[in-house]
Amino acid sequence: MNDKERKLFIDNIAKYIQAECIARGYNYPSAIIAQACNESNFGASKLAKYYNFFGMKCGSKWKGASVNMTTKEEYKAGTLTTIKDNFRSYDSIVAGVRGYFDFISVSRYSNLKDAESPRDYIEKIKADGYATSTKYVDNVYKIVEQYNLTMYDITVNTESKKHTAIVNTVSDPLRLRAVPKGPIILLMPKGSKVELLEVGAQWCKVKYKNTVGYASTTYLKEV
After folding, report:
1. Which of 128, 99, 98 is nearest to 111 (CA)?
2. Are 32 and 21 in contact (CB under 8 A)?
3. Do residues 132 and 82 lie in contact, with contact meaning Cβ atoms separated by under 8 Å?
């Protein structure tokens, strides 16, 4: 798999992960996108054909479809053990992504919403027992850095919260989106004033004429 194919996978799955993060209250889509890349080999693994991009096993409570596959676990540091287990199977990328968020919605993973950074999220989920690999945190976070996945995060800058900004595009109106990189819901002409609700590295949550959505920070100037 080449780098272009990897980026296509990221672009495709990121919008679904972002939407679920926004709906369910998780702040770092970057960490979850990187998990999907790591667990599914950027969508190229055998398990990814069943839209399980996160290596989720069935467990005792799963009532849906499943597939039996071989995997490796690092129960003892430095030693890989080959096992066969049943993994969850889904019928679409949407269902697969939602399945991950359903999977982490139990009390075992309740600390994930308190993560203070993408790496903190990965460290927490590793400590919660999600993965056995001793290199899991480093491997997943390396993907965050390599592909600049923090551009998908929507983190709050409290100093900028509820400040006003002016749309400062070069020519075309700025596109207000339902979610970052998602469908366009409104166009904002150059010179328009918007209320900044949340400020991220690449995207801001803004309010414009009673419509709330996400806009690129590139074309917004705080006043």
Report:
1. 128
2. yes
3. no
